[in-house]
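The record is kept unedited without comment:

——
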Amino acid sequence: MACNSCSTADGGAPKGCKNNGTCGTDSCNKLTVFDWLSNMALPGGQEPFDCVEVRFKNGRKEFYRNTEKITLSIGDIVATEASPGHDIGIVTLTGELVRVQMKKKGANPTALDLAKIYRKASQKDIDIWSAARDREEPMKVRARELAIAHQLEMKISDIEFQGDGSKATFYYTANDRVDFRLLIKDFAKEFSIRIEMKQVGFRQEASRLGGIGSCGRELCCSTWLTDFRSVNTSAARYQQLSLNPQKLAGQCGKLKCCLNYELDTYMDALQGFPDFDTKLYTEKGEAICQKQDIFKGLMWFAYRENSIQWHVLKIEQVKEIIAENKAKNKVSSLEDYALEVPSAPEKDFNNAMGQESLTRFDQPKGKKRPNKKKRPSGEKQGAPKPVASGEPNTNAQNPNRENRHHRRPNKSNRNEPKK
């Protein structure tokens, strides 16, 4: 996600608007809603809806009533009613879509006890708000140290300051109930501020903090998912996934929410399948189901005595054998119904040119060639090797040139007369 203010740095990398979650266009934030009614005018005589949606830290959103009829638009920083004092937030949605969002989240648009918007935030309000947010990270580190000193089984996941800096909300996670009365006294003494403790679930903690999932994208709970349904291990069993907690668990430590996305499709496909515990009775023995392929409509069976060899059957053939077994008849064997599975061709992992092999380093090294024999000291280097009579002269470098060494006469025969 990126806003219109995000520019591009050298090399094509996004530079970012550097607003760290307080982007004016609200496009860099989590759980944003596109206002597709922004360019449409209201019918004549109808007044605009007087409630607006305001976002606070980490995607927390609340609805407020605009009793003062202030002209507000998306991205405006406003001061809202809080207890005690006031809070600072950013307007994320106005108009008729706020009514739709309130109905979706179970809020009553006509409720009289709805909090109000005081005014648009002044520069002084924004400065106090920014200074309070800068204190959150060092306070979180110190708060965790105090919780460890009290030996409490809890984790301080996040701290959120109120806009006027008068109160801080500590979000924590814990498996059991925690007695933190002494811890709150130490917090108030250490930070000199009003303390409020709020427990959140592990999934809510992951949605507040955000992150990147194993799929390489941002977490669903921090971008668009708002309702956290319970996920059971049966969802993984129906999809024939290995029950490996390291792969099935998300950043919250619970089962991934995406296991429920395709569960309905698998459940519909399994309606036409026989039960996995179905047993087939043949003359060769009893056969047990070993594996299913839901989308291809195949089932693998093996004899109880020979569980290594599997036979592939279609679900129509399995139902036919089940009907015979119900009639107290045994089929001859599974081989009469099994499909012939073509053997997969062997893969050659050489490169496209066929010059190198991936297993070239696994081959044993050849023996080293013996060194060449040393020439005798009397023989000159580069001298031609004597040739026996009747053999071709293979030592000549140039066949068109005569070898002067063989045609040179001996010194003892130079002065002898020619015959």
Observations:
- Residues 238 and 299 are 15 Å apart (CA to CA).
- The longest strand covers residues 285-293.
- The first helix runs from residue 96 to 104.
